[in-house]
Structures are given as C-alpha cells and as structure tokens.
Design a protein that fits this description.
The chain is an all-alpha fold. It contains 13 helices and no strands. The chain is about 80% helix and about 0% strand.
C-alpha cells in the first residue's frame, strides 16, 4: 500500500509543476490586462505604468513564474490583484461551498446509480431500459436548462426550495440541505445514468461468469452472491467511474454555482478569468490539480484493497 502511495506521489510532483507552468503562460497569452481592468478605460499612460509596476506586471513572465514558485515553496499562493486578499484565504472561504456540492452530488449519484445498476443487472428488462434512458437524457439535456426548469417548478411555482443562495451548515442544517437540493439534482442527472450503466455492465459480466454459476449450483443465497461476490468483483470499474464523476464535477460546478448564485470555487474561477487575476487563477489550478491527485490516490488505494494482486504489482 505504501509503495502505491509513494509511486503516486512521485508521479504527482512533476504533474503539478507542468500544469502550473502551462496555466501560468496560457493565461498570459489570453486577451486582457489587469491594469486596464483596475483603472478602467479613462486613465493616463503614467497611471497605467504605475499600476503595472505596483503589480509586478513589468517583470519578464519567466521571472514572475519563478517568484510564484518561490512563494509556493513557503506555502504562499500570493494575493489577489483586485482586492489584495491572500489567495489561500479566498480559496478556503469558497472551498466549503464547492466541496459540499461535489461530495453530496457524488454520494447521491453513487447510491442511486449503483442501486439502479444492480437492480437492472439482476432483473434486466424494463429497469435496464430505464437506466439507458436516464443516462441518455442526463447527457443530452443541458445542465443550465434543467436548472432553470427546476427553479421554475420548485422555487417559483411551488415555493418549496430556494432558487439562489447558500446557507452554511453551521447556521441552519435544514437550510443548508435545501440550498443544495436543486444544484445536486442538476449535477446528478448525467452522473446517475453513467454510474448506473457502468454498474449494470460490470455486474452482468460477473453474474454470467462460471464461478457465479458454481456458487448458485452450490446453493449459496441470492443476496450473498450479488453483494458479497458479484458486487465486490465488479467494484473496481464502478469505483473508477465514481472517481471520474468526482473529478468531472470540479468543472461541472461552474454552471451550477453560476445559475444558483453559490459562492464557490466555480464562480470564483469565472470571476478571476474575466478579471485576469493571475494569482487567483494559479491558486485555483493548483487547488484543482491537488484534488485530482488525491482522488486518484484514493481510487488506487481502494483498488489495492479490493484486489490484493494490485498491491503485489
């Protein structure tokens, strides 16, 4: 197990460096100038140069990147160009919203998707078609359209759930749950179908294998065959799709947070990009990269737990 963790850690270090370097220089190539955004259109050349000098924008790009790496080595992600607030503080203040949304969506999608997948693999027929239709609709319907329809029904017509905003769980647990219901449903729509399809395919493959037929012939109970044997052997591919779902939600939250006015990292990414706030963008890229690495590490550890042969490889 430690060997797997150590290997993943060694691979991750150059990955973080490459991703941070690419994002830094790609942002510099995009159209926009933070000094112009700060000053507006009506400014003198002297004011413009003074702002660029203050922000360090007159330095060569490579020098600026080296300074950023030096600060990163000391645990400092810099400060926002526009409000002079530490980037790490900004990310901490917004990460709770995004992680709440991603974790609840992943758990909800996994429970429903795996349940549908197992049921459709065992009973087949109509349930299999329902999983296929759910997957197709979830991937075909645009998230923002689904969000607007849900807002029109549950917020405007029924007035049962809030249309926008986020309530901290420490303030009101019920309010927190209500503020997440609609965004979670929107993000879960495609995930449930995908996880359900993968679960059904994996379960069907295992259930049709010779050793399962042997267990049935030996008189082993149906529930024991399904959950203790078939599901465990199908779990590796299911865990893979759940991990991919979690990672994909990092970008999927951008639309949900924008439509439902949630103060999370997705909305921050849109704001920082429009303002050309490079320190915040770099902090977000690093944050998301580390999250992806951690998720992949967890998936690898689960693989090793499910299949001892992986630990020996």
């Amino acid at each position: 197990m430690l060997k797997i963790i150590g290997r993943r850690f060694l691979v991750s270090l150059p990955l973080v460096l490459i991703v941070s370097m690419l994002s830094f220089f790609l942002v510099l190539l995009t159209h926009g100038d933070p000094a112009v955004v700060i000053l507006g259109m009506n400014h003198t050349p002297a004011e413009y140069e003074a702002v660029r000098e203050k922000l360090g924008l007159n330095e060569p790009a490579l020098t600026r990147y080296e300074h950023w790496l030096e600060d990163l080595g000391h645990g400092d992600l810099g400060v926002s160009i526009f409000n002079s607030e530490p980037v790490l503080k900004i990310l901490k203040g917004r990460s709770g919203v995004t992680f709440s949304l991603i974790i609840v969506t992943t758990v909800f999608s996994s429970i429903v998707g795996i349940g549908l997948g197992i049921a459709s693999a065992v009973r087949r027929g109509l349930l299999a078609r329902i999983v296929d239709v759910t997957s197709l609709l979830g991937m075909a319907l645009p998230n923002f359209w689904v969000a607007l329809v849900l807002i029109a029904i549950f917020s405007v017509s029924l007035r049962f759930l809030p249309a926008i905003g986020y309530v901290q769980p420490g303030t009101s647990l019920s309010g927190w749950l209500k503020s997440l219901v609609l965004p979670v449903i929107v993000l879960s729509a495609p995930a449930i179908g995908i996880i359900g399809q993968q679960t059904r395919s994996s379960m069907l493959e295992v259930l049709d294998s010779p050793y399962i037929r042997t267990l049935r012939a030996g008189g082993l109970g149906r529930s024991s065959i399904i959950y203790r044997h078939a599901l465990r052997n199908a779990a590796i591919s299911i865990i893979t799709i759940v991990g991919l779902t979690f990672v994909s939600l990092l970008s999927g939250t951008v639309i949900a947070e924008t439509v439902f006015a949630l103060p999370g990292l997705g909305g921050l990414a849109v704001q920082a990009t429009s303002q050309h706030d490079l320190p915040v963008i770099q902090g977000l890229v690093l944050y998301f990269t580390v999250i992806v690495i951690i998720v992949n590490l967890i998936v690898d550890v689960v693989y090793a737990w499910l299949n001892p042969r992986i630990r020996l490889s």
